[in-house]
Amino acid sequence: MRRNLIHIGYHKTATNWFQRVLYPRVENGEYIHRKRVRAAFLRDSGLMFDEKAAVSALGGKVNIPFILCEEELSGNIHNGGLFGCFTREIARRLNRVLPDSDVVIFVRNQVDMIASVYRQYVKEGGTYSINRYLHHQRYLTESGFQPAKAPLFSFDHFDYTALVELYEELFGQERVHVYPYEAFKKDNQSFMEDYLLRFGMKVDLEALPDARPNPPYGRGVLPLARFLNHFSYRDVIYKRYWLHVHGFYKLRGSTLKRLSKLPVLGDQVSPEMLLGTKNVAYIRARYAESNRRLAHRIEYPLSVYGYPM
Question: What is the pTM of this model?
Fold first, then answer.
């Protein structure tokens, strides 16, 4: 592996698996735990960031390539990377501290992605409907909705080409590598063999533990979760709560996790049904042109994986 590897997300594209299972087992690179990555790049404000302090926070061994993997580097999914400003600032910080790096970006079909993001919103304590979460500006007064002051969900955040072009400008086109999550999921063994070869990483794939992600809330659990979330102010900002019960957030989470394993409640609702016909149509129209531009940049056929084109 000739250069550092910076894996910036997106969220909901198996970054947790890469953090817990794959990267810590790379024999010829040093995986930097996400806590140290956050301390180095996400802790300081835009006016207080210090490159030397970031290098110190990362630590690491001399002459061994770093491996960073932290989805928040691409920006938080519930606030659109703070109106995109946070996303751009972090890209600049990464380039200033680790300019000799390859950048990895995993993307996901926006219909599936946004449905998954909404499920995550509910899992983290959200109470609003899919329409209010996605189109919050319709529900807030004009004077109360100013995204530059209090950013919420943003469709712009999932315009992947914009992010790719930003990193290409900073690191160079040949160092920015984009992968569809669907290719990773469809044929994991073949995908990972090519992935490791591309970056010269030595990993015994046969020795990797079988780590299965927790299933998302099913058809019967999702509305129950939204109801229970009214009794805790945690964890997302954009929500309504009636009463905060101390300790309820953790109790509710463990209870819903157990209920999700029941077949009668855990049956999954499709992204199309969760989003609704109008939202799906809007998403497909919103990202078609951007995805066509992205398709020319990568070797995977995005149309085959259902990306709006």
Answer: 0.94
